[in-house]
Specification:
Chains A, B: This is Polyphosphate:nucleotide phosphotransferase. Two copies of one chain form a homodimer. The first copy, chain A, is an alpha/beta fold. The first copy, chain A, has twelve helices and six strands. The first copy, chain A, is about 50% helix and about 10% strand.
């Protein structure tokens, strides 16, 4: 089996379209696809495939029929910012934007939890990246239900029905987006607890990276097992063919980036887009105009 | 049976929470509830009940747990603008706003059909009125499917699955809003074809009302039967306990207004809201502060 076939098969195994049998424990964060690639070779390969992503983005932008929503979730230091920087730096900024969903502010809290999500949903022809997303509302609030008291909610909160309602609302939102022509891809950057420890230590050792820390991040590490459980639930409840989760082995950054870009490229290729052809009367006009430009005095 | 009991029973019969057996033909636009009220008596009664609406709105605003979304739909001259003016003029403008959904503009068309709807959804504590709504996307575009070509849509359009998808997206949106504590009330102002004729004629006779006309309105009258069918479908597909349709007999304006305000009042009363009580420590502070104010030199 050649490397590409092997990689595509690995991609399939990370792709969750039905959560019923999903078990996060089956996913090894250390997996590197067994491609026999070194970190340097992986980085070189990424550079090559980024060119393909740019071509596909051009077609997406030109056709104005579809859009792409990329959701990035993961524990602190899992590589969300790095993925955006290294994977998406090749695309045309005119067609892409990033929305970071931090703790909701006062105006956001006056609306339903999906309000700010809808506002940021992609226009046709565009790629939008969510750095954290609607899933925070079934992850951080699930681990810390006392945060719900800041939301203006009626009815019983933090009951099993409450969480089922949120999962259902999220599924419906994504189904709607998919029906409108949005490709929804949800990436969980899966690192091990030990890998997080090493990355946090490395960050603490580099003075220029200390700004990325807040004491809150370090406290969240104490809730590691609760977060794993919350991810397990969120993924199994919301993985659907129209909005798959891709569980990305992320202990090796170079491999995680290849998996993310691979999944995006594959989804865009499935659209089988071509450069749009102008209507015959427009083509005729363009030909005539070309003739006119050619006959102008230089 | 006294008049109030009779009126409440009539209200029940207009309230559609399950569309399976809904037939628009069972609803008589000429119905005036058989209350034996004259137009003048109806107008006087409206004035009285508006006071109750204001009280309930104050509680809604103070409690910050729920919100109200009022959707007004109906044929041209059915009384949408008049209902807003006469029913909602009693409430505090700080807690209410009206969004009119006309033909979508270029930016709106770049997003999914529910994008502008979500943006306008009510904050907690508020009443929002939609003058036309998401339902235009299964009414006017259903009657004139060629309008869909202006939307950037992928996949097969105007197929039965396409419309089922839209109904489903609308139901899900409303279910989400309801779960967030929004009371969703959808009013169809039901007039007869003959009543529309008379109202249009009356408008044409009054020079000051001629501005309300566009030739397009008059053309839409030609599609009366198609619109009735589209309303029949929309109501039967989207009437749910969490987002009922109220089919308002609207040939008599005074009666239509009583029905609309009656349904809103009843929904708000069901919340059984009381003025929020301050926490004991806040109450203590307020008492102390009062003492301080009293002891100030005048």
């Amino acid at each position: 089996m050649n490397k590409l076939a092997k990689f595509l098969r690995a991609l399939d195994s990370y792709h969750i379209t039905n959560g019923d049998k999903f078990d996060l424990k089956d996913h090894n964060p250390d997996d590197d696809g067994d491609l026999g690639l070194t970190k340097a070779e992986g980085a070189k390969l990424l550079k090559t495939v980024k060119k393909r992503l740019l071509e596909l983005q051009d077609l997406l932008y030109a056709n104005q029929t579809h859009s792409v929503l990329i959701i990035l979730q993961g524990m602190d230091a899992a590589g969300k910012d790095g993925t955006i920087k290294h994977v998406m730096s090749g695309v045309n900024p005119q067609g892409v934007s990033v929305s970071s969903f931090k703790q909701p502010g006062p105006t956001e809290l006056l609306h339903g939890f999906l309000w700010r999500i809808h506002l940021a949903a992609p226009q046709v022809g565009r790629i939008v990246i969510f750095n954290r997303s609607q899933y925070e509302d079934v992850l951080v609030t699930r681990v810390h239900p006392d945060l719900l008291q800041h939301e203006h909610l009626s009815g019983e909160i933090n009951s099993p029905e409450f969480w089922q309602g949120r999962y259902s609302d999220i599924r419906h939102l994504e189904h709607y987006l998919a029906r409108q022509g949005t490709i929804v891809l949800k990436f969980f950057l899966n690192i091990s607890r030990e890998e997080q420890r090493e990355r946090l230590l490395a960050r603490l050792d580099i003075p220029d990276k200390r700004w990325k820390f807040s004491p809150a991040d370090l406290r969240e590490r104490e809730y590691w097992d609760d977060y794993q459980k919350a991810y397990q639930n969120a993924i199994s409840e919301t993985a659907r063919p129209y909005a798959p989760w891709i569980v990305v082995p992320s202990n090796h950054k170079w491999y995680a980036r290849l998996v993310v870009i691979g999944a995006i490229i594959r989804a865009l290729q499935n659209l089988q887009q071509q450069a749009p052809k102008p209507a015959p009367e427009v083509a005729k006009f363009l030909d005539d105009y070309r003739t006119r430009l050619l006959s102008e005095h230089p």
